[in-house]
Every structure is written in C-alpha cells, then in structure tokens.
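REVIEWER CHECKLIST
Item 1: Sequence provided? yes
Item 2: Single chain? yes
Item 3: Sequence as submitted:
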Amino acid sequence: LARGRTLFEQGKLEEAVAALNEAIESSPKPAAEALLLRGTAYLEQSKYDAAVADFSRALKIDPSDTRALSRRATALLRQGKDQAAIDDFTRAIEDEPDPRDYVGRAMAYWNSGRNADAIADLSQSLSLAPDSSDAHFKRGLVYLDQQQWQPAKQDFAAALKGDPENADLLATYARLLATAPDAEVRQGTLAVALATQACQLASDSNSDCFDTLGAAYAEAGQFDEAIRAAQTAIGRERDPATKQEYTARLVLYHAKRPYHLEP
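Item 4: Structure as written out by the authors:
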C-alpha cells in the first residue's frame, strides 16, 4: 500500500495500480484505503467502471467513508449517470459538507435540466469557499444557459480573478462580452483582450477562439481585424456546419455589422 501511494503521489498511475493490485490481491480482506487509492487512480485515468467498482468495494468495508462516496459520485457524473451521482453526492454532503461536492451535485442537476437546483448548490459551495474560481465559472455557465447575462458576467469576472489563464473561461467570458443581446453587458474592448489571450493559450487547431475573437473585434468596431480572425477560424475548422456558421458571421463583418445573439 505504501509503495502504491508513493507512486500515485508521483503521478505514476500505471505503476501505482500495479502495486495496489498486488496489495489487494494478496490479502483476503483488502484494506478500504487500498481500494480507495486504486479507485482514485482509475478515476484519474478515466477508467470509470473500474473506479466505481473499487469505491463500491471500499464502501462495503467502511460505509461511512465520505471520500469513497464523493469520488464514486464523481465517476458516475463523468459516466453521465446523473441521478446516481446526485444520490452519492447528497449522502456525502449530509455526512460532511464539502464545497466540491456541492459543485459536483450542481453539475449533475444541470445535466438533468434542474438549473435552479444547480444554482442553489453552486451558491452554497461559494458560501463555503467564496474564492472558488471553479464554482464561479460553473455558476456563470448555468446563468448563461438561462440567458441571465448580467449574473453570468459577474461570475465570469469573479472566476477570472483566481484563474486568469483558463482558456475556456477566457473564451466564454469574451464571447459573452462580445455577443450578449443586452448592450449593457457587452464590452468590446475587454472582449478583444480576453479572446486574444484565449487564442494564445489554445491549441493550434482551435478554431472557436478565433471565431470569438472575430466577434469581439466586430463589437469593438474593428472590422478589418474581425474579418482576419473570422477567416482564420474558417481555415482551421473541419466541420462543414460550423464552418458555415463562421462564414455567416464573416458576411456580417464585411457589412460592418457585429454579431449578437438573438434576445
């Protein structure tokens, strides 16, 4: 177990699993801690079925282990088993409230279309950990889904303070500032700065950030730059339907018109 833990802490997940296999298989009654650790390694390797199995075995040995409950819930969430994830997160929260479990349950609620419950859980998470960039970002996404532009803007701004190099956050925030139907939410100049940074952080094959950058430039009235960014997005995009959407926005920029979402 000690060797498996050391390898896990070093990020050597395959070797950690091998060492833990040996520890678990050599004992007629494996320790819950060994199962928990191997399950966590499987979770980090995206081997969700194996992770759920190990966490379930650990819980049979120690039903009060909130770590196993929380991590099994996370694996179930990633499998798309939202109600099962909600059930596990709820048990974990009842035993030992943790802001991360509120975030996890919120994502399961959101996936299930329960947006109000998702926002309530994310707000509760933030009451326990007010500086959580992750909770602010995710609550902003739920607000965005509900077309609550101003609350989404406030959450993205708060998230950015603690996570200024998150490319997804930068691009999402920039897109809101560039394309929101509400003129009071839009800020073209800031959108350009954020989208530029997102494109610098994104992979070379990313087309979406350049589409966002084009929308930001257009909102800022810099249509020549908007056209160049849109052309870059079109050149990088492989999907025909998405390329068509980018091309439609390019037509707007040639006509010196920004792109805004429909209210």
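Item 5: Key structural point noted by reviewer: The two ends are 57 Å apart (CA to CA).
Item 6: Recommendation: ____
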